[in-house]
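Recall from the previous chapter that SMILES is a line notation for molecules. Here it describes zinc ion.
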Amino acid sequence: MVKMATKTKLGLVFFPAFDWAIAPDHPEREERLLYTRDQIREEGLLDLPGIVEFRPQIATRQDIERVHICVPSVEKVCTESHLIAAGGTITAGELVVSGQTERAFALLRPPGHHALRIVHGSRGFCTINIEAVMVEYLRKLHNGRLRVAIVDTDAHHADGTQDIYYNDPDVLHISIHQDGRTLYPGTGAVDELGGPGAYGLTLNVPLPPGSGDAEVLYAVEHLVLPVLRDFQPDLIINAAGQDNHFTDPITNMKVTAQGYARLTELLAPDLVVLEGGYSIEGALPYVNVGIILALAGLDYTGVREPELPPGVQKDGRVHEAVVRNVAFLQEVWARRQEIDPAAVFGGGNYYRRKRHLYYDTDDIHEVQVEAIKMCAACSGYRELHSFAEDRRRKQARIAAVLLPWHACPACRQQAEEAFARLAAEPDWDDVYYQNPADPQRPLVSKAGRGES
Ligand SMILES: [Zn+2]
Ligand SMILES: [Zn+2]
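With both inputs in hand, we obtain:
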């Protein structure tokens, strides 16, 4: 392979989604990115030789179905904007793995990190998990031989990404967020550590309201960086929500543009994907410029919000709860390989859990029952039963069988049998089968209702 002599340092992929909004006055709206674009132009960042803009592609149904089970279908839950946001994230991923650019930053919307494996509608402004769609696309390119770390620094817990990867041994997921007891979606406590096939590879650092640069940077330096050094991912992805900013209208945090830039410099991610951030004029343009400069290896110390009040950047003292949580997670990380899964998940053949999930954006309630095969040879196939009801009492009852990457032959066979059994049961609207590794059959096949 011939190595290029010079390579673009940073690729930017923009998509402001002009025609997608939850409501005209909703904080998740196109101006989120338009002010950022103006600021980037004003600073002349696109004139710098190392920074190049690329156009997003459109994700296909198959790209979405590598990750999600969309009920009733991808077409029914996604708009074109969702497909372009996911596709633009894929474009950013391709730039980096192909070596066309050293790093990439996808500045797009709608965001994705609250979208769970099963999608009945939208939660927390999210429908499609754009990071996961990219990760699965890239893993497919590498036949599943790709270790990925996702570090989510949005103020809200990345419950969707956690749900998708919580039993996946090749994807480390770390979320740093405002404590779930004080903010949507309420999850992300330190004891949520992953499923039996990937215990300790889900790490959550809840930060008390009022946390700022000192707290976020402490978590990165004392937990994230040492964990990344151990895990040795092929790719580090930063899901960069900017709603930790001190001006954000829907959270209670005190991070500054300098804090975000320093976080980016420390983390040195291959890819950054924009998530939330609703302080459209006061934060996003400055935070994004700081991140771009840090990614391009340029001096970011001059980036400053116009209204930076004195005292926001504190004296560097770190809230005691953060020190305690980080110490607990360091201990979990150090001991994760000695922990017997049976001691945590019980000694049976299956680990089962039942959850109530709420789609706040679409007002849908879901009850989900999950069984994971406790398998010594792979991370185990899964069977999901999902019952959802919207506010008009419209119901959906679906079942799904999921194979992991690198499923062992026994799990493969049992998954096939489970699918055949479920498909013969009359109570399901649809039964889905998802196997990310097998190109011989559709990623999602349906049964029930007499369809073949
Ligand atoms: Zn957020
Ligand atoms: Zn197995």
